[in-house]
């Protein structure tokens, strides 16, 4: 379980870094539009992709923080919905999950 916590903390730091990078990228883009039309349309697409990636990193970060909180409370290996222990292989594959396979399928 200590391993899973370490793994989640590493994941958390990585996600924060990723999130900051997307944010910095977007802020940099707010300069003057001095490029040709083709370039601009490519950048609009990039912005949408960055936006989606940033949202994804944020969602994942929330999930990781939530899982860490449950581990710290001593209930990290139990399903949040039904209270049954979560399968170890599932935790290994998805360290930030807080529900068992049955509940995740609902
Ligand atoms: Zn469950």
UniProtKB/TrEMBL annotation:
UniProt cross-references to Pfam families, sorted A to Z: zf-dskA_traR
Domain of life of the native organism: Bacteria
Domain Zinc finger DksA/TraR C4-type: 77-104
InterPro entries: Znf_DskA_TraR, Znf_DskA_TraR_CS
One Gene Ontology MF term: zinc ion binding
Stored PANTHER family: GENERAL STRESS PROTEIN 16O, RNA POLYMERASE-BINDING TRANSCRIPTION FACTOR DKSA-RELATED
Protein name, as recorded: Conjugal transfer protein TraR
Species: Halomonas aestuarii
């Amino acid at each position: 379980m200590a391993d899973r916590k370490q793994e989640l903390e590493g994941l958390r730091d990585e996600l924060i870094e990723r999130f900051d990078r997307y944010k910095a990228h977007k802020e940099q883009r707010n300069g003057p539009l001095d490029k040709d039309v083709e370039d601009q349309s490519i950048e609009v697409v990039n912005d949408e992709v960055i936006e989606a990636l940033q949202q994804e990193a944020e969602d994942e970060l929330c999930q990781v923080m939530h899982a860490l909180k449950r581990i710290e409370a001593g209930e990290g290996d139990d399903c949040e919905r039904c209270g049954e222990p979560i399968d170890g292989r599932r935790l290994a594959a998805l360290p930030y999950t807080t529900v068992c396979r049955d509940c995740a399928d609902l």
